[in-house]
Design a protein that fits this description.
Immunoglobulin-like, 17% helix
């Protein structure tokens, strides 16, 4: 009788494994069949705080439908962190930084006086994901125009707005030579 129980246990275990694998395949392929239009685009509400050398934009994500971008030039992402780039006077460019507002973390962007953020609220676009999926990251973007010649800066800090700055936050700094 115990041999029979062992065979039954083996069959039950094998059936459980097959069922788990089938369920996993269904879940994985369900995400692959979502239409590409399921991206969420969000704009960010902002508080602008002028200082002596910069304008600070504090971003918070809120959904918005069909926002038209004002971007017409180059895109700078995390790979440009700490680097210099050259742009022409009156050129527009985009800064695009990965983030996930569902974690409470947001980018707080600042520009020097020779730059202006054309979409001061910024824009957040969620990465493609299955319908109703939560916690998906995406990209925060700012469209910026060079309005004065010389060395200009775009910088941002990724942190929770209610937490104090500790110096351990993720930061982004791009130095622009405008001519």
């Amino acid at each position: 009788m115990s041999l029979m129980n062992g065979k039954n246990k083996l069959r039950l275990t094998a059936a459980s494994v097959v069922l788990c694998v089938a369920l996993a395949l269904i879940l994985v392929t369900a995400g692959c069949t979502s239409p590409a239009g399921n991206q969420t685009q969000t704009t960010t509400a902002a508080t602008t705080v002028p200082t002596a050398n910069a304008t600070t934009v504090v971003t918070t994500a809120t959904p918005v439908a069909n926002q038209t971008p004002v971007f017409t030039g180059m895109v700078f992402n995390e790979s440009y962190n700490g680097k210099n780039a050259t742009v022409k006077l009156n050129d527009t460019f985009r800064v695009a930084l990965a983030g996930n507002p569902t974690t409470g973390y947001l980018w707080n962007a600042s520009v020097s006086k020779g730059l202006t953020i054309l979409n001061p609220n910024g824009t957040y676009t969620q990465n493609p994901a299955a319908a109703n999926m939560t916690g998906v990251g995406g990209v925060f973007t700012w469209d910026v125009k060079a309005i004065s010649n010389g060395t200009q800066n775009f910088s941002a800090i990724y942190k929770r707005p209610w937490e104090n700055t500790t110096g351990n936050e993720t930061t982004f700094k791009l130095t622009l030579i405008v001519s």
